Amino acid sequence: MKRKLIWAFALLLAVSLNAPAQERMERGEQHDTLNFFVGEWETLDNVMPSPMGAGGKTECKAAFKWMLGDFWLAHKFTGEIPDFGPYEGLGLTTYDAVAGNYVTYWFGSTQSIVGEYRGDWVDDKSLVLDGSSDMQGTTYYERLTWVKVSDNELRFIIEMSTDGQNYSKTMESTYKR
């Protein structure tokens, strides 16, 4: 058995040494379009009434910074969300050169579901990302829209749908530096 493991390891090593080296990808202009997010933000959030609760207004904090070779934009969000209580979220966004679109992965403190959202700029100020998830046997579609209002203000909108066509706003936030 020991001899078989040694041979398997030797074969794996020989194959990996002969594999072509992976070239480092260059950061492109698609990544640069996300630069204006970088920094500390105060948010004013309006959570819409829904089956999950009455909704309401709150103020939170957000911060964006580049990480992992400046390919991934990290978005940290903290605050008190109506109907949920204390909330922490972490988003990671990049340009996926293989798929040809932007992708955000979102991790939140209220559930163990990872949100995956993909999309693109619809104009020079609006990044729109779509995703879906299954909750209790129902597929929900979500749309995240980021709008650059000015160098010091962003608008963020979350919309939800059960059919992928008719969306309703579930949260709208204003981010200010």
What descriptors fit this protein?
single chain; 177 residues; mainly beta; ten-stranded antiparallel β-barrel; 2 helices; 10 strands; globular
Detailed description of the structure:
With about 180 residues, the protein is mainly β. It has one domain (about 30-175): Beta Barrel (Lipocalin), CATH 2.40.128.20. It has two helices and ten strands. A ten-stranded antiparallel beta barrel has the order 1-2-3-4-5-6-7-8-9-10. β5 (about 100-110) and β6 (about 115-120) form a beta hairpin. The longest helix has 17 residues, at about 1-20. It is globular. The chain starts with a helix and ends with a strand.
In short:
Helix content is 12%, strand content 56%.
CATH architecture assignment: Beta Barrel
Overall mean confidence score, pLDDT: 88
Shape: globular
* Class derived from helix and strand content: mainly beta
User: How many domains, as an integer?
Assistant: 1
- Walk across the major sheet and give the strand order: 1-2-3-4-5-6-7-8-9-10
The unreliable regions are 4-19
Amount of beta strand: over 45%
Q: Helical proportion?
A: 10-25%
Instruction: Summarize the biggest pleated sheet.
Output: 10 strands, antiparallel, barrel
The CATH C-level class name:
Mainly Beta
Number of helices: 2
